[in-house]
Design brief:
It contains two helices and seven strands, in the order E-H-E-E-E-E-E-E-H. The chain is mainly beta. It has one domain (about 5-10, about 35-125): Immunoglobulin-like, CATH 2.60.40. Strand 5 and strand 6 (about 100-110) form a beta hairpin.
Length: about 130
Amino acid sequence: MLKKSAIVGPDWQRGGIVAVTALSLLSILAGWNPAFAEEFDILNQTKTTIYHLYVAPEGASHWSDDALGEDEEDALEPGDSITLRDLDPGRYKFKMVVENDRDCIVPNVQLQAGRTLELDGEFLERCR
């Protein structure tokens, strides 16, 4: 089983060490305790290889960058998992490109802190 990792949150959440340091300092000085985005594990329990994975908040009109990368060898094979970073818990839609270049969009995907989202046959049946 292969474990991958991807940052798919908004660009402003990827500001680097300067932003983290400034936010930490602000937190200390102002007594503010910001909520940081979570990490979510996604496990491919289907019999299908997922070649591309895009994520967007439910209702958004744009998609994240490809969480799997642009190369075919970065595909999420059955049994593989990926950790999505810099997302808040909530409802999302997933766009996957699976075998035969078929697009599969699954709406209303609930990401919950501390829980692994298992992509299974039932999940793929929700494709539009």
